[in-house]
Amino acid sequence: MSKVALSKAESLRQSILAQVAEYYQEVHADRPFIPGKTRVQYAGRVYNAKEMQLMADAVLDFWLTAGPYAEKFEKKLGGFLGAREVVPVNSGSSANLVAITTLCSKQLRHPLRPGDEVIVPAASFPTTVNPIIQNRLTPVFVDSCMGDYNLDPAQLQAALSPRTRAVMFAHTLGNPGDMEAIMTFVRENKLYLIEDTCDALGSRWDGKRLGTFGDLATLSFYPAHHITLGEGGAVYTRSPRLAKIARAVRDWGRDCWCGYENPTDGKCGIRHQREVPGMPGFYDHRYFYTEIGYNLKLTDPQAAMGLAQLDKVEEFIARRKRNFRYLYEGLKQFEEFLHLPSWHAKADPSWFAMPLVVRDEAPFQRHHMTRFLEEHLVETRPLFAGNLLKQPGYQGVECRVIGDLPIADKILRGAFFVGVYPGLDIPQLDYMIETFGNFLANF
Q1: Angle, nearest 10°, between helix axes 49-61 and 3-27?
Q2: Strand locations in 33-101, DSSP E?
Q3: Using CA of residue 258, residue 263, residue 269, residue 273, what is the dihedral sign?
Q4: Which of these, 339, 320, 385, lies nearest to 124 by C-alpha position?
Q5: Topology alike, domains 56-302 and 311-440
Q6: CATH architecture assignment, domain 56-302
Q7: How far is CA 46 from CA 197, 224, 230, 284, in A?
Q8: pLDDT reported for residue 271
C-alpha cells in the first residue's frame, strides 16, 4: 500500500473512532437514576467510549480470532495479577475445564488419573465442579462456613483419603477462603490446589493476591464480573510447564506455542523441522497434538475491550469495596431477620456482591423477600446452586459426601445476593436499603 493510501486509511480510521465515541455519548452514556422507575441491577457492564473504540479498532484490522490485542491483554493482565503465565480463554467455565484438564496431562510426572479425588464445596457454582466429573475424577463434597460461605477447612481432614489428589474451590463472591488453613492442608498432603477466582479479581489474603496460592487459578470476564470482555476468562499460574499444557488444551490439543506470528516458520523458527516418532521425515509442528484439547480461545475484539477495562480495574475494585461498606452499614439494622456476611481478619475482599441469608426464625421465607425486592426493581440472585447435590443434574453423580452438609442446605434454602458493582451509586444503594426496610416494616 502506498504512503498516500496509508495516510487516507489512517484518516478514515481516526474518523470512524471519533464517530464511535460520539455514538457512545448519544446512545450508551449513563442515564439518571429514578427511584422506583430504574432497575437496580445486581451487576452489569461498566464502560465508556474507550471500550467501543478499541473493539472497533480491532474489527478494522479484521482479526477474527486471537491476535495482537489478545497478546497485549495477556501481558497486561499478567502484570496486574502478578502472574508469570496467563492463558486467556473464552469463558470462566472454560478456564475451569482447562485448569483441571491440564492437571490430567500425561506430560506431568504426577497427573490426576480417573478415580482420583478432588475436594470441593457442595455449595459451588456448577462449572467449578463439572470439569472434575467430566475428567472422570471423583468430587468429594464438603460443607461451607456460615458467614463467608467458603469451603469449611475443618472438614478437610475428614475428606482425605488415599485417592485424594487436589482441592478446588471458588472464593465465594470475592470473599477469600481461609488460605492459612487450606494451604497448610494442601502442603502437608502434597495436593494440587486450583483457585476459582472468577468472582474475586483483586481480592487479597494477608496482602497476597488470590489466585497466586495454588498451582492454577481461573477468572471469568462475563458481564457480571469485575471486568468484562462480554464473554471470556483466563487460566493463570506461576508454572511455565502448566501454562504450556494449558495452552495446548485451549488450542485444540496441539503442542505448538508459536501463536499468530510468522505463519511460515512459526515463532520457534523450526515449524517444519520437527520429527514425530514412528513417522519418516519431518512434520508440521502446528499439527502435532499432545493433549485431548478444544478450541477455547477468545477473540481480538474481546481482548481489545479487556485492555480498556484493565485501565479501570483499580477504580472498579475501590468502588465495589465502597458500595459493600455502605450497603453493609445500611443493612445492619435488619440483622434480626438477615445473616450479614463475615470475613477473616486477614481477608481483603474485592466483593462481587453482598450475600445475605434469611434467618431460620424469620417470619418469612427467602422467596417472599426476593419477590418484593424484584417487584420494586431491586435485582436479586440465589447464591448460585446452593447445595449442588440437590440439583437434578447431579443426581447419581459418583462422589463422596462428608457429613450432612447443613450449611450448604441453608444456602440452598435461604441465601441470596444483591449488587455492589461499580455501576451503583449512593442514591441507588439508599433505594435498596429503603426497599429492604419497606418489606421488613410488615414484621
Answers
A1: 150
A2: 85-89
A3: positive
A4: 385
A5: no
A6: 3-Layer(aba) Sandwich (3.40)
A7: 20, 10, 11, 44
A8: 79
What was the pLDDT predicted at 261? Answer: 60
Domain layout of the chain by residue ranges: 1-30, 56-302, 311-440
- How far, in Å, CA of 230 to CA of 90, rounded? 10
| Distance from the first to the final alpha carbon of the chain | 75
* CATH architecture for the domain at 311-440: Alpha-Beta Complex (3.90)
Which residues contact residue 356 at a Cβ distance below 8 angstroms, ignoring those fewer than 6 apart? 331, 338, 339, 340, 341, 415, 416, 417, 418
What are 168's strand-pairing partners? 194
Task: For residues 429 and 436, give the distance between their C-alpha atoms in angstroms, rounded to a whole number.
Answer: 11
pLDDT in tens, 297-319: 999 999 999 999 999 999 999 99
CB within 8 Å of 19: residues ≥ 6 apart: none
Handedness of CA 232, 237, 238, 240 (dihedral sign): negative
Share of the chain above pLDDT 90, in %: 88
Check if the beta carbon of residue 139 is closer than 8 Å to that of residue 120. yes
Backbone angles phi, psi at 428, to 5 degrees: -70, -40
Q: Which three cell numbers stand for residue 374?
A: 424484584
Query: What residues are labeled active site?
Result: 225
172: cell is: 465465594
**Mapping DSSP to helix (H, G, I), strand (E, B) and coil, where does residue 361 land?**
coil
**Per-residue model confidence (pLDDT) at position 262:** 60
Q: What is the pLDDT of residues 163-214, one digit of tens each?
A: 999 999 999 999 999 999 999 999 999 999 999 999 999 999 999 999 999 9
- DSSP E strands, 239-351: 338-339, 347-348
d(CA 398, CA 437): 45
Q: What's the confidence (pLDDT) of residue 427?
A: 97
How many residues belong to the chain? 443
Query: 131-163: b or e for each residue (b if 16 or more CB lie within 10 Å)?
Result: bbbebebbbbbbbbbebbbbbbbebbeebbeee
Residue 52 burial (10 A CB sphere; 0-12, 13-18, 19+): buried
Which pLDDT score is estimated for 3? 65
pLDDT at res. 324: 98
